[in-house]
Amino acid sequence: MDLTLPVILAALASGALVGVFLGTFGGGGSVLAAPLLIYAVGVKDPHVAIGTSAAAVAAIALVSLVGHWRAKRVKWPCAGAFAVAGILGSVAGSQLALRVDGTWLLAAFALAMAAIGLSMFRKPKGEGNPDVHITPSIMARILPLGLLTGLAAGFFGIGGGFLIVPGLMMATGMTLSNAMASSLVSVALFGATTSANYALAGQVDFPLVGLVLAGGAVGGLIGVRVARALAGRVALARKGFAAMIVGVAGYVGWNAVLGIFATS
Predict the structure, then answer these.
(1) Which of 175, 193, 219, 180 has the alpha carbon at shortest distance from 33?
(2) Distance CA 160, CA 237 (A)
(3) Which of 136, 156, 200, 249 is deepest in the core (most CB within 10 A)?
(4) Mean pLDDT of the chain
């Protein structure tokens, strides 16, 4: 699409917003990327929006990951095992999504958004083992969870952090803080794999990726700082963010339904 000044500003602002939420919560923020590209930036094709957002989210997650890595919150062996298993799933999921009509894909995306938002209302467990180490039994739990999460992330073009965080906690017993930081490894790799599939099909707008990434880089760094500032009030912040996601899901779903009726 043409990079007019309004498009450039909207893309930068969209990336910054995604970066703030991704850096703060580790999951959930990436699900806003595609709707922002469609309704704020003006991308017409849902496939292009999902492919472009996946590429940008992968890069934004890497920026956020650096801050958490420096703070020593990332449990690399567990995070790496989860991510490697999930890459296989994200390849399959993104290939399937490319074969689905764009309007129907947007409707399914809205349902996924609603599920993400509602899941964030649950109170996450803050307790856990801060010194967790990977073992054969933990590996046996991580691999299938990673595969399924990657499949969902690839199909919907999202980072999947809302599934990765509880998945890591369930499989390893690590703390919420460690899981949020470690999830960014998978968010980055799942997004990169998904966007590569879309790019091969010509469904990624690379100039937009650069703009969203530029905004997201700043937002991601802000999000890491916000995460520290909200250490004692993260539950309240998550509920407000969840309510926003559910509201956006309703808007996306309504437009998708109108599009389905218009073409039927």
Answers:
(1) 219
(2) 19
(3) 156
(4) 82
The residue among 74, 27, 68 whose CA lies nearest residue 225 is 68
Is residue 208 within 8 Å of residue 33, measured between CB atoms?
Answer: no
- Give the model confidence (pLDDT) of 19-29 as tens digits: 887 777 655 66
What burial class does residue 38 get, using C-beta atoms within 10 Å of its C-beta: 0-12 exposed, 13-18 middle, 19+ buried? Answer: buried
Give the residue from 25, 24, 22, 42 showing the smallest Cα distance to 34. Answer: 42
Backbone angles phi, psi at 132, to 5 degrees: -65, 140
To which residue do tokens 């709707």 refer? 35
Contact 206, 156 (CB under 8 A): no
d(CA 147, CA 151): 6
Q: Is the pLDDT assigned to residue 65 strictly greater than 90?
A: no
The two tokens of residue 238 are 């998550």
Query: In Å, what is the CA distance from 97 to each residue of 47, 102, 152, 178, 227?
Result: 8, 9, 10, 31, 33
Confidence class of residue 255 from pLDDT cuts 50, 70 and 90? confident
**pLDDT tens, residue by residue, 192-211:** 888 888 899 899 999 999 99
3-class DSSP assignment, residue 147: helix
Q: Is the pLDDT of residue 172 over 60?
A: yes
Alpha-helical (H) ranges within the chain are 5-25, 33-36, 46-70, 76-97, 102-119, 136-156, 161-172, 176-200, 206-229, 234-263
**What is the average pLDDT across 179-201?**
88
Q: Note the pLDDT of residue 154.
A: 82
SS3 3: coil
